[in-house]
Structure formats: structure tokens, C-alpha cells
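Students often ask why inverse folding is considered easier than folding. One informal answer: many sequences map to the same fold, so there is more than one right answer. In these notes we will look at a single instance of the problem. The structure comes first.
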């Protein structure tokens, strides 16, 4: 179970990822707002995070890091699907976020490779979990 501060950090990291190309598009904003609601973060707090990002903190549990990485993959796909620019810069940023979260580079590379073979480049959660489980064990 993650506490409020960790939830705010997770959301802040996702906002930072969405802002890597400077502007958060409407579809990205709506996705992030949905994540905020899932995390039980009030809209005022969400708006504050957009203007005032929080510094990154390391997630303790491996499963929390996998879930956050999956959210970032979804966010990157939403951005690219709606004219969000350069695919390679988003992939590099996603790869670096994964490494910073302490995920193995083999798992990240496999996810990024496999996402090309799925509809809309969305790796199903069970496939993603299996990839990280294999590397983690």
C-alpha cells in the first residue's frame, strides 16, 4: 500500500514525463486526471503538481515500479497516437525513467521491443508482469 506522498510523487513523475515535449495535450491531461482520481488525489492537488512538480522518490516495491512503468508506457502511447512528436525521444525518456526506478534494462528493452507487436503499442498488463517477473527471479 502506498501513502499519499508516494501517490503525489508517482503522479508528479507522470506529469514530468508528459511535459518532456513542453506542453501537456488535452488527451494526456485527461489521462493524468484519471490517474489522479484512481490514486484518490484531489483535482486542486493535481493542478498544483502540474505547476509545481515534486522531486522523484524511489518506489520500494517491485510491483509498484512495474505498475508505474506501465502507466508511463500508456502515457507515451497516448502522446504518440495524438501527434505527440518524436517516437525515439519518448522511448529514450521512458527507458531512462525505467532505469531510474530500478527496473532491469533487459526487462525495459524487452517491453519496448514487444510493444511494437501489440495493437496500439499497448503491452497487456499480464505480459508486462511476466517480463519483469522473469528478470526479477
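Output (designed amino acids):
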Amino acid at each position: 500500500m502506498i501513502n499519499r506522498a508516494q501517490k503525489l510523487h508517482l503522479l508528479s513523475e507522470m506529469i514530468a514525463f508528459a511535459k518532456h515535449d513542453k506542453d501537456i495535450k488535452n488527451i494526456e491531461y485527461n489521462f493524468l486526471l484519471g490517474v489522479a482520481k484512481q490514486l484518490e488525489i484531489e483535482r486542486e492537488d493535481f493542478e498544483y503538481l502540474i505547476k509545481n512538480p515534486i522531486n522523484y522518490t524511489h518506489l520500494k516495491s517491485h510491483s509498484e515500479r512495474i505498475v508505474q512503468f506501465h502507466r508511463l508506457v500508456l502515457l507515451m502511447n497516448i502522446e504518440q497516437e495524438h501527434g505527440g512528436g518524436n517516437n525515439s525521444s519518448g522511448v529514450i525518456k521512458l527507458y531512462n525513467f525505467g532505469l531510474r526506478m530500478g527496473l532491469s534494462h533487459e526487462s525495459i528493452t524487452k517491453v519496448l521491443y514487444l510493444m511494437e507487436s501489440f495493437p496500439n503499442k499497448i503491452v497487456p498488463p499480464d505480459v508486462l508482469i511476466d517480463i519483469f517477473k522473469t528478470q526479477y527471479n
